[in-house]
Amino acid sequence: MNKREFLKGLILFFPAGGLATILTKRVGAGETGGKEKGPEAPGGKEAKTRPNGAYDPERHYYGMGIEIDKCIGCSRCVEACKAENNVPPEPFFFRTWVERYVITRNREVTVEGINVKSKTARETTQDDREVLRSFFVPKLCNQCANPPCVQVCPVGATFSTKDGVILVDAKRCIGCRYCIQACPYAARYLHPETKTADKCTFCYHRVVKGLLPACVEVCPTQARIFGDLRSKASRLVRFHRMNKVHVLKPSLNTDPKVYYAQLDGEVR
Amino acid sequence: MRIPEQIQRLAVITAVIIVSVLIARFLLIPRSLISDELHRASTIQRENAKPIKFAGSTTCQDCHEDKSTQIRKGYHKNLSCEGCHGPAAQHAENPMGVKPFAPRDRKFCPLCHGYDASRPTGFPQINPTVHNPVKPCITCHNPHDPVPLQVPQSCSACHAQIQRTTAVSSHALLRCTTCHNVPAQHKTAPRSVMPSKPSTREFCGTCHGKESTQKDAPKIDLTNHGNAYLCWQCHYPHLPEGRG
């Protein structure tokens, strides 16, 4: 065999061999509905039946209302969120968190996260006499209708669902932290175990089954309201009718779906 | 016109490359790697398959009917069971094997009821260091039906929010009647017979004036302090600034 014949043979041999293996695979896989990955098949089938049944994401559009005057800063929501969603216990990984705003006489604004770890009564750092006003602001992912995090993701791992929740595909996420930088609400963090971006999902797994998000479930003062914006009468629609509402950083045109009542102008 | 041989050969190679790229794109690479739609669907599936830890308040009342009817009548009527008892979905599935958490020590209740200046005005709060120290809260208060232990004083029975606000202010030790004259009929006909309110600057001056003998009250000179205004136009008497 000379060089010329060898190269000719090579050109034909490799694609033909590859094609043969692929075609045999295809035939085998064709019976299980073209699904490539074995272990995911059972879950896939279950979810496939769901749209025909109860839950239709097209018919919902979720949002949250937060009444600041009702928040007592007990951080039950933060702990419930950590328990429900396996958020690491360290006090710097949060899907939802509560900030204390203290505005002093000389108009200095202090913002501090409430430390979930300390079980004792928390006290303001300032002398009470210097405080002009003070309040708590619960924060979480604003599930923007126009989300900057989705725009910047280089691999398309984060996306909006039809019912208005931003999810992260942990299998696709490469952990580049671009979305964490892009989020104007600092709602994302890099999960230390999976090394992928993680964020509030409005407890998507609970919501599709008709349950409330864990934070809303445990809030003792009903400072958090969860509901469907597409519904004519939901708790959230009522919240919109009865309160003057505002969103965080409206100038960024992110169109958040977390609405605040009695929001102070100092809240960032 | 005859196509030169080298062009023909190049065309064959190009065709092979194009075909192999197409094969790779549509046959070799599984669709689940390319299709956004499949990716998103599988993410939603994974998300939906996550275990639920909080069973939800309606689940608890199926078995604990007595507690849920009791709690619906009291001040804690809007509280979710799992807010205090922790996630209980496992308990709902296996009631004997998994028992939920029950807070019984003094640390838990002050998470909500300990005094904190940032809490909304009027929310019932205590100072845990001076409020019956050491005793667990549940020795006096039933968390499923919390009521103030003492018989409510006549004013706070209706004016609870003002009473609770004043309770954490520097006016905590003043009686309502120090500033308000309350006719006896006010208790039976509250709207038609109203208690009095202080009407002059001099009234506040009896404690806060320069010449007052009241030792603890901060003093001002009535003649040059905010002349144009009545005291309560700037200071809220039930929660004056400068606590402690």
Give keywords.
heterodimer; A: alpha+beta; B: about 240 residues; mainly alpha; about 0% strand
Structure description:
- The complex is a heterodimer of chains A (268) and B (244).
- In chain A, a hairpin with a 6-residue loop joins strand 7 (189-190) and strand 8.
- Chain A has helices at residues 3-30, 41-49, 76-85, 148-152, 178-182, 204-207, 214-218, 235-242, and strands at residues 62-67, 96-104, 109-113, 131-140, 158-160, 166-168, 189-190, 197-198, 224-228, 245-246, 258-261.
- Chain A has 268 residues and is an alpha+beta fold.
- Chain A has eight helices and eleven strands.
- Chain A folds into two domains: 57-145 and 200-261, Alpha-Beta Plaits, CATH 3.30.70.20; 148-198, 2-Layer Sandwich (Alpha-Beta Plaits).
- The termini of chain A are far apart.
- Chain B has helices at 5-28, 31-34, 36-48, 57-63, 65-73, 81-85, 89-93, 110-113, 154-158, 160-167, 176-179, 201-208, 231-234.
- In chain B, helix 4 (57-63) packs across helix 5 (65-73).
- The mean pLDDT of chain B is 86.
- At the A-B interface, helix 1, helix 2, helix 3, strand 2 and strand 4 of A face helix 1, helix 3 and helix 8 of B.
Strand order of the largest sheet of chain A: 9-1-11-10
Please identify the oligomeric state. heterodimer
**Biggest sheet of chain B, in brief?**
none
User: On the 0-100 scale, what is the average pLDDT of chain A?
Assistant: 84
Q: N-to-C SSE series of chain A?
A: HHEHEEEHEEHEEHHEHEE
Number of strands of chain A: 11
What best-fitting shape of chain A do the alpha-carbon axes yield? Answer: elongated
Distance between the termini of chain A: 76 Å
Largest interface: A-B, 68 and 55 residues
* Count of helix runs of chain A: 8
Computed Rg of chain B: 35 Å
Strand content of chain B: under 5%
Q: In the CATH scheme, what's the topology name of the largest domain in chain A?
A: Alpha-Beta Plaits
**Shape field of chain B:** elongated
CATH class of the largest domain in chain A: Alpha Beta
Report the uncertain regions of chain B.
none
Which structural class do you get from the secondary structure elements of chain B? mainly alpha
Question: Roughly what percent helix of chain B?
Answer: 40-55%
